Amino acid sequence: MIFAGTAHKFGDDINTDYIIPARRKRDTIDHAELARYLMEDISPGFPDRVRPGDFIVAGHNFGCGSSREAAPLVIKAAGIAGVIAKSFARIFYRNAINVGLIALECDTDLIQDGDLISVDLSSGTISRGDLQIKAQPLPKVMLDILKAGGLLDYLRERRDFITT
Amino acid sequence: MGRTIAQKILMRHSGTQAEVGEIVVARIDLAMGHDGSAPLAIEFLKKLGAKGVFDPARVVFVIDHYCPSPNERVSALHAMMREFAGGGQCTLYDVGEGICHEVIPEKGHILPGELAVGGDSHTCTYGALGAFATGIGSSDLAAAVYTGKLWFRVPPTIKVVVEGHLADGVFAKDLALHIISRVTANGATYRAIEFEGEGIRSLDISGRLTLCNMVVEMGAKAGMVAPDDKTLEWISGRASRDFEPVYPDPDATYERIVEIDAYTIEPLVAIPHRVDSVAPARTLKEIPIHQANLGSCTNGRLEDLRVAAKVLSGRHVHPNVRLIVTPASRPVYRMALEEGIIKTLLDSGAVIVPPSCGWCIGACNGIPSPGENVISTANRNFKGRMGNPRANIYLASPATVAASSVAGRITDPRPYLE
């Protein structure tokens, strides 16, 4: 599976309050409604700059803070295909995969804001022109969940966790 | 090869050797959700066609985040939780019973050696009792409630050894801020932390809960204190099921050991907008304060209100400051009332609001104005966290928050405690 889109660059320690503030997610579990508030406190107007299939590219510790699953759900609802970061906070990382949002770890210094990038999920490779960056492989259970489209679909099919 | 507490708990719950890095599927003892995470999990359970939960005695929902409900839409989400609980599928603590991380240990829903997951990042708080407890999102919560299991990657452990005692006027919150500034906001990502040493043994359970509450601010998956006599005494009378404490093997392998000299720590403050940007309170006395907040899952326990009352007794909150106090649970509120703490706080000019997460997450009960400075006992000072991205949030101990509310600016609390 290959995905292509424009990179939107963010720095280190982008926390879930920045992604979607509690004062917004408080009222609803309809994430399409919340998409217009994505990153509003640190990058006003960001959702208007996103075209479907684009990527968020960030530094270390993306998604730190709260366990709110609204964070990856709102990113997805805004049209973002995936997040590529130097590292993720662990709850966000699990939540992203659980909702079927691509989350890959690699050195993101080589990707600039506005770069057109493509992601080959099966090989875990991120390409920008001729440049290829290898992402950290996902554990099998996470890859299986992502391939199923998320944890809900994974469990619908298997009814239990299978790690072998 | 010896094992850490995290490994031993995961080994016991998964039937594997729980080697570091291994992916295991572990049986869970408690699945917790609140009004910020449970409604989405309930929706997932419906989509999954789940007929029930794995064990209603081990599923606990708490309405604490946005309560009492500020509007009709939030009320609808609360109603979803009541409907779910009404089917006998879980225990529900409704509006006013308390903040989940106070209610869960207080009511004996988590015990030493157990494995808990919660739809809240500060679920790590329960590690103070020697449990492995970690935050998850709503999909994982639904999976845990449905299957009674969840997958985990067995984490490496960082050992934090705290030698010596904290000085007078210095508290577990100051210790937590000191450790976070040393380890940094992502210095423990994917790791477990074990706390050990005289500085930990000398903390009461309230202080240990404060410390373990904040390990996620370093990215940690869990933070644990091995049980001791204080733990077992605290647990007695609360436990409604048998439990088996877990202790680390003497030859356990740690990824890293961080040594702290407790006595050198002074009252500290995390400055905007990062929890790991920490400075001594005495160096920030030029910062005027407009709102002071005492409460939250970090510091809303009886011991926290008591020390604030000691600072505020016979004093009055500065005319430019609003001091907002949130007892963390109904029992805490009642005990504070019986002890005269609430009266002292009221007499000093404080506003008491019902147990909830309200202001900590900017949901209700005290949203700051643009340009204001807030000093709070909570655990996060991210921009916008309290509902206004143009306010500045400083984090400190209950003593420092109370003293600063009197001074009208950030202040070292020690002269107020003499």
Secondary structure blueprint with pairings:
The complex is a heterodimer of chains A (164) and B (418).
Chain A: E1 2-9, H1 16-19, H2 22-25, H3 31-34, H4 46-49, E2 55-58, H5 70-77, E3 82-85, H6 90-98, E4 102-105, E5 116-120, E6 125-128, E7 131-134, H7 140-148, H8 151-158
Parallel strand pairs in A: 1-2, 2-3, 3-4
Antiparallel strand pairs in A: 1-5, 5-6, 6-7
Chain B: H1 5-14, E1 23-27, E2 30-34, H2 38-48, E3 59-62, H3 72-86, E4 91-93, H4 100-106, E5 115-118, E6 132-135, H5 138-147, E7 149-153, E8 157-163, H6 172-183, E9 192-196, H7 198-201, H8 205-213, E10 222-225, H9 229-235, E11 256-261, E12 268-270, E13 278-280, E14 291-294, H10 296-299, H11 302-312, E15 322-325, H12 330-338, H13 341-348, E16 351-352, E17 373-376, E18 392-395, H14 398-407
Parallel strand pairs in B: 2-3, 2-5, 3-4, 5-6, 8-9, 8-11, 9-10, 14-15, 14-17, 15-16, 17-18
Antiparallel strand pairs in B: 1-7, 12-13
Q: Radius of gyration of chain A, Cα only, in angstroms?
A: 15 Å
**What is the CATH superfamily of the largest domain in chain B?**
Aconitase, domain 3
Question: Main beta sheet of chain B: strand number and arrangement?
Answer: 5 strands, parallel
Biggest interface reads: A-B, 45 and 56 residues
Poorly predicted segments of chain A = none
* Integer average pLDDT of chain A: 95
Question: Could you name the CATH homologous superfamily of chain A?
Answer: Aconitase, domain 4
- What is the fold named in CATH at topology level of the largest domain in chain B? Aconitase, domain 3
Task: State the shape of chain B.
Answer: globular
Overall strand count of chain A: 7
Q: Care to describe what's here?
A:
The complex is a heterodimer of chains A (164) and B (418). Chain A has a single domain (2-158), classed as Aconitase, domain 4, CATH 3.20.19. Helices cover 30% and strands 20% of the residues of chain A. Chain A has eight helices and seven strands. Chain A has helices at residues 16-19, 22-25, 31-34, 46-49, 70-77, 90-98, 140-148, 151-158; strands at 2-9, 55-58, 82-85, 102-105, 116-120, 125-128, 131-134. A seven-stranded mixed beta sheet of chain A has the order 4-3-2-1-5-6-7, covered by helices on one side. The radius of gyration of chain A is 15 Å and the shape is globular. The two termini of chain A are 23 Å apart. Chain B has 418 residues and is of the alpha/beta class. Chain B has two domains: 5-261, Aconitase, domain 3 (2-Layer Sandwich), CATH 3.30.499.10; 269-413, Aconitase, domain 3, CATH 3.30.499. In chain B, 30% of the residues lie in helices and 18% in strands. Chain B has helices at 5-14, 38-48, 72-86, 100-106, 138-147, 172-183, 198-201, 205-213, 229-235, 296-299, 302-312, 330-338, 341-348, 398-407; strands spanning 23-27, 30-34, 59-62, 91-93, 115-118, 132-135, 149-153, 157-163, 192-196, 222-225, 256-261, 268-270, 278-280, 291-294, 322-325, 351-352, 373-376, 392-395. In chain B, the strands form five sheets. A five-stranded parallel beta sheet of chain B has the order 4-3-2-5-6, with helices on both faces. The model of chain B has no long low-confidence stretch (mean pLDDT 97). Classes of the chains: A alpha/beta (164), B alpha/beta (418). At the A-B interface, helix 2, helix 6 and helix 8 of A face strand 1, helix 2, helix 3, helix 5 and strand 7 of B.
